[in-house]
Design goal:
three-stranded mixed sheet; 238 residues; alpha+beta; 5 helices; binds zinc ion
Length: 238
C-alpha cells in the first residue's frame, strides 16, 4: 500500500493513545517520494532567547510513498518514526540515532503491541527497483547470430552509445553480419537492476518477447550519431 496523509494521521492518533499515553502533540504529516528513507521525523533545534535552553520545534513527520509496501511495514514505519518523535519531543538524549533509549522503546512496543518494528527495513528486489529514481536508461537489444537475444545497459552519454555500438558490431556481428542491435531509451523498472557500463557483457534474455519495450523510445544509432525517435505513448523526457 501507499498510505495517504489521512491514513497516517489515523494511525498516529491510535498509536499515540495506545503506546505513548496520548502525550505526543499532533504534528504535520507529509508524503515523500525520496529514495533514501521509508520515514523521517525532522525538526529544528532552536534556543529561546540569548541564554535560553535549546528546544526542538517545527516537527514534521514524513512517510515515503515511492515504494509500495505491505501495510504492516507501513504501520511499523509510522511507529518507528513515532519513537524518534517521542524522544525528540521530550528532548531526551539517546546514545546514538537508534541508541539504548530507542531500542528500549522499540522492544516495549514490539512486546506489548505484537509489532515488528526494526532499526532498518530491508527492501526486497521489487521494492528496491521502485526505490530507485525512475531515470531513463539506454538499452541495447542484441539479436545474436546464434538466435539468442541479449540486452545491455549503456551509460546515457552519446560517446558511450557510439563506442558501444561500433564495438558490439565488430564483436557480435559475426562474419556474415547476421547480428543486429536495436537501441531504446526507457524508464521501465525491468531494466533497473542491470548494471550500466561500456563493458562488452551482454545479458541473455531467455524469453525475448517478455522484454518490455512497448513504451520505450527508439534510438536510431549510426556510426556517427544518435537520434531519439519519440514514442507517443510515453512522456519521459530525454
Ligand atoms: Zn530511525
Amino acid at each position: 500500500m501507499r498510505p495517504t496523509i489521512e491514513y497516517i494521521q489515523t494511525r498516529f492518533d491510535e498509536y499515540n493513545t495506545r503506546f505513548f499515553g496520548g502525550t505526543l502533540p499532533p504534528l504535520p504529516v507529509k508524503l515523500s517520494h525520496a529514495k533514501g528513507f521509508l520515514g523521517k521525523v525532522t525538526f529544528t533545534r532552536r534556543r529561546r532567547g540569548l541564554f535560553g535552553r535549546y528546544h526542538n520545534e517545527d516537527f514534521v513527520l514524513r512517510i515515503n510513498v515511492r515504494i509500495d509496501l505491505p501495510e504492516t511495514v507501513v504501520e511499523d514505519t509510522i511507529l518507528h518514526e513515532m519513537i524518534h518523535y517521542y524522544i525528540a519531543v521530550n528532548e531526551w538524549h539517546d546514545t546514538s540515532t537508534h541508541g539504548e533509549l530507542f531500542r528500549r522503546e522499540m522492544a516495549r512496543i514490539n512486546q506489548t503491541g505484537g509489532r515488528h518494528i526494526t532499526i532498518s527495513h530491508r527492501l526486497n528486489e521489487e521494492e528496491q527497483a521502485q526505490a530507485q529514481v525512475r531515470k531513463g536508461r539506454i538499452v541495447a537489444v542484441l539479436h545474436l547470430s546464434d538466435g539468442r537475444t541479449g540486452i545491455k545497459i549503456v551509460p546515457k552519454q552519446i560517446r558511450h552509445i557510439l563506442y558501444w555500438h561500433q564495438k558490439a558490431t565488430r564483436v557480435f556481428g559475426g562474419r556474415d553480419g547476421q547480428a543486429s542491435i536495436e537501441w531504446y531509451y526507457t524508464a521501465h523498472p525491468f531494466f533497473a537492476n542491470y548494471p550500466s557500463s561500456i563493458a562488452m557483457k551482454v545479458y541473455i534474455i531467455e524469453k525475448p518477447d517478455t522484454i518490455p519495450l512497448d513504451d520505450a523510445h527508439r534510438l536510431l544509432v549510426t556510426d556517427r550519431q544518435v537520434r531519439l525517435q519519440k514514442n507517443p505513448n510515453n512522456s519521459l523526457k530525454w
